[in-house]
């Protein structure tokens, strides 16, 4: 006699939610300490102010606390030219060092459509308009993430 077939999961929700529920449980952060809200807010303020000073367009900040393991905040901004994006990345890196952040990782600074700045608990994405619409990070990580 054959064993009975497993019953299909009737859990309501999207396939993404079902995968998250069924998948491995998140491992608590042990690599780095969670930044105090005051330091996190200070760094976010430095980032947004620096981007505004450099005429970045459509600056968006997403709160990813509890949604992502790699950061608590994500800042996304648009620059119109390679030189503007490279200058924004350079100025932002300098201002984060001045704010007390010991190490800032910058990827893609050598003239690309997308520059990523890893400031620990905050990740900054600088895009050209075409690349920003193609990758659509706001849709991927925005408010609809929990729907």
What's the gyration radius in Å?
Answer: 19 Å
CATH architecture descriptor name of the domain at 35-132: 2-Layer Sandwich
Low-pLDDT stretches are: none
The helix-and-strand class reads alpha+beta
- Please give the alpha-carbon distance between the first and last residues: 43 Å
Strand order of the largest sheet: 1-2-5-4-3
Sheet with most strands: 5 strands, mixed
Helical stretch count?
Answer: 5
Number of strands: 5
Could you characterize the architecture of this molecule?
With 147 residues, the protein is an alpha+beta fold. The chain has a domain of 98 residues: Beta Polymerase, domain 2, CATH 3.30.460. The chain is built from five helices and five strands. The protein has a five-stranded mixed beta sheet with strand order 1-2-5-4-3. Helix 2 runs antiparallel to helix 3. The radius of gyration is 19 Å and the shape is elongated. The protein starts with 14 loop residues before the first helix and ends in a 6-residue tail after the last helix. The model has no long low-confidence stretch (mean pLDDT 81).
Q: What's the short story on this structure?
A:
This protein is α+β, with helices and mostly antiparallel strands. The protein is built from 5 helices and 5 strands.
